[in-house]
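Subgroup meeting minutes
Present: P.N., E.W., G.H.
Scribe: E.W.

1. P.N. recapped why we're keeping a running log of single-chain structure predictions: easier to compare across weeks, and new members can see raw inputs and outputs side by side.
2. G.H. added today's entry (167 aa).
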Amino acid sequence: MIILLILGFQSNIHSQENNETFTIYLVRHSEKDLFSSNSTDPPLTKCGKQRSENLSTFLKDVNLDVIYSTDYNRTKNTALPTSIAKNIVTKEYDAQDLEGFSKFLKDKKQNALVVGHSNTTGVLAGLLVGQEIGAFDLNIYNRIYQVVIYNNQGRLHLLNTVFNCVD
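Output recorded in log:
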């Protein structure tokens, strides 16, 4: 009888773990300065900085546990306003291992913001939901991939933000 109670308790814990819901928001970095003398790691433009602030405002009421960025000024600075507003230190991830990172994100089961690039953001979103999604055009900055994971299954929502740069 005691064994059955223990097994029942463990089974209940296991089913609760599988039913956890968490959300991952994936965005491409904001506009980069194509005329910067630092062509390998350019800073954000004025509009890029404004878009990053706008992203922080968009995520204001979103519960985030962690923020991830690649090791580039443009991605770190895109995450920075949200990082400051939420008092969360941004962690780096390796964009060269998107499969490993997608598994890591699923295993962590945390609400996260992931800032990447035009050739990684869609791909990572696809890995999280089991779909093949490729890179997107270099001129696109308004996409937010929202991946909701419930019961170890991901559902992808593509959000298009409206943003107008103020000169």
